[in-house]
Amino acid sequence: MGTRIHMKRKIGSILLIVLVLILEGCHKQEKEVVLIKEETPVRVTMGEENFQKPAPEYTEIVISGVGDIMVHGPQIRAQFQSDTQKYNFENNFKHVQEYLKNSDLMLGNLETTFGGADKGYSSFPYFNTPDELANALKKAGFDALATANNHSYDTGHEGIIRTLDVLQKEGLKTFGTRKNTKGKSYSILDIKGIKVGLSAYTFETPRWGEFKTINAIRIPKEVEGLIDSFCYEFLEEDLVAIKERVKEIKKEGAELVVFYMHWGNEYKGKPNNYQRQIAQALSDYGVDIIFGSHPHQIQSMEVINSKAEDKQTVVIYSLGNFLSNQRYEILNNRKTEDGIIVNIKMRKNLLNDKIEMQEISYVPTWVHRYFVEGKAVFEIIPTYEVIKDPLQYGITSEKTLWRILNSQENTVKSIESDENLKKKKEFKGLIHKI
């Protein structure tokens, strides 16, 4: 009897344990259901992560240009560092490099050569500059340089090749000259998804019989094809060749075409008839932007309507001197001290691939030359910023400040003086100073 009671209790205990386990199991199942419900929002979040946002409709780039980059004798001596026995040009650009680096494509005209120390460094009339300038230009923010100008052959055939080697070693793109006729004298760059073609041409001096001359130097036949040039005497013929160049660049995929033209008359504030004729021809061929160099003074800007295409071309006939020692004290001409950084914003519609100009802005610059312990210092300065706070840029002389103000006034008058630009109502408010 006692055994049966004991067995009943044992069985009862077992049943109780089983019941507890069943209830616990049910409770766990309820928790699992709740967990599944709590995970549902996470699945929705994952769905949102996979959601495709609409593609952008536009992309914008800023293409900028400066004028002549020259190094005269006093500059060569000023940039020599006695402690390292080397040259350093970085200080020339320290006050403007923020403007240069803000551009998507920063361009300039290199009006010198890198012929090497063995040839001896020199300036006018035959320029040969220390290689360190190339490194300073790259650090300052330049992306590509025009190498076709009337000083391209100053250090001969070897100088043409070595100049390109020095620039390309620094990561700078070049256009206007080439090492051999199998290579290309133009560049096509992909800038934020827009392919930009770059080409540069220089004027020739009068021909010597069957030979071309540049800077009054007879160019050997084997070198003629290495420098992109044109002759005013044979302009119609040369324009045909330039037209083919534009076609070639576009055939290779360029959507925007930029030309540097080394043209015009030195020390003149207005473009001549040849400049206007060539600019209109380039516009008709499909060139979008023309940066002019050689006059050593700033000339006007114009927006040209292409006669062949439904588009417009921006031309700055001369960007003046960005870096040089051409000063009032030497040339009795204050305007050779003036420079400018011109920025052109272009917008591409990604839905129809149409590219339009959105804005033109510019930064007036001036070459500040002063002396420290008898040694010259050359610095390019942005005039608007300097006028706001002269002391920040080391300007303490009222005479120097007047020269900066005068330079700025001359630049604004020159760049916006073209009557054709003033007449175009659609560009009112498009152009502004920085």
Mean pLDDT: 88
Number of helices: 12
Helix content: 25-40%
Net shape: globular
State Rg. Answer: 33 Å
Which stretches are poorly predicted, pLDDT < 50 over at least 5 residues?
1-48
Report the sheet with the most strands, covering strand number, pairing sense and barrel closure. Answer: 9 strands, mixed
What share of the residues does DSSP label as strand, in percent?
25-35%
Number of strands: 21
Secondary-structure class: alpha/beta
Cα(first) to Cα(last) distance is: 110 Å
Question: How would you summarize this macromolecular structure in one to three sentences?
Answer:
Belongs to the CapA family. The chain is of the alpha/beta class and 434 residues long.
How would you describe the overall organization of this protein?
The protein has helices spanning 2-49, 73-78, 97-101, 132-140, 156-169, 221-224, 235-251, 273-285, 328-331, 383-388, 398-415, 419-423; strands spanning 58-69, 80-81, 86-87, 105-110, 144-146, 173-175, 187-191, 194-203, 205-208, 211-214, 217-218, 229-230, 256-262, 289-293, 301-305, 312-316, 321-323, 338-349, 355-372, 375-382, 431-433. With 434 residues, it is an alpha/beta fold. The strands form four sheets. Strands 1, 4, 5, 6, 17, 18, 19, 20 and 21 form a nine-stranded mixed β-sheet that branches. Helix 7 (235-251) packs parallel to helix 8. The protein is globular. It comes from Alkaliphilus hydrothermalis.
Q: What attributes does this structure have?
A:
single chain, 434 residues, alpha/beta, 9-stranded mixed sheet, 7-stranded mixed sheet, 12 helices, 28% strand, globular, disordered N terminus, Capsule_synth_CapA
